[in-house]
Amino acid sequence: MDSRTLIPFLFMLCIPASALAVSDAYQSLSMDLVVKAEDDISAERNAEANARLDLALVADPSNARAFVLKGQVQHLLGDTDEGLRLVSIGLQIDPVMREGLVLQTQLASELGNLGVAEAALERFRRICKTNCAEADTLGALVEKARNVDDADPATDSASAKIDGE
Asked: In CATH, what is the architecture of 23-94?
């Protein structure tokens, strides 16, 4: 656990559970900010979307959709590792959010994190009751990432050195 997660975790242990509850007004504000951030993303105003999502998470730190969208924005801004981390937080809050599972599969595949990609794809397949062509598309993406990982000469030479020792 690094300092970015340790301090908020320790802080949360000191606060009574009733103090962590978010009022309806703040939840509503958070959702309004998320809707505006979606508009920003559609208009490719990613920095503005990122700022709105920061505010949405201040208003309601349990807004899973805000975490997933912030992960998407971080990816669009070039920080895919942070994007995957944020999407994963959103999915801890709402483990069956289709959009989050799709994005987690895509980002993990792009990063070559096959374990996370395969787990997200499996969860997506379990909740997908209709129109599961998207699951097939995601499966192909994971397979492509697996093939890239298998064909990576850096990985092969590193494992050859380990095997040869």
From this structure: Alpha Horseshoe (1.25)
In the prediction, which pLDDT does 129 show?
78
pLDDT tens profile 132-147? 888 888 888 899 988 8
Domain boundaries, the chain: 23-94, 96-154
For residue 48, what are the contacts with CB-CB under 8 A and spacing of at least 6?
A: 37, 40
Determine contact, residues 111/125, Cβ cutoff 8 Å: no
Q: How far is CA 75 from CA 26, 56, 109, in A?
A: 27, 18, 13
As a dihedral over the C-alpha atoms of residue 46, residue 51, residue 57, residue 59, rounded to 10 degrees, the angle is -140
Angle of CA points 38, 39, 42, to nearest 5°: 85
Q: How far apart are the first and last CA of the chain?
A: 33
Distance CA 84, CA 71 (A): 6
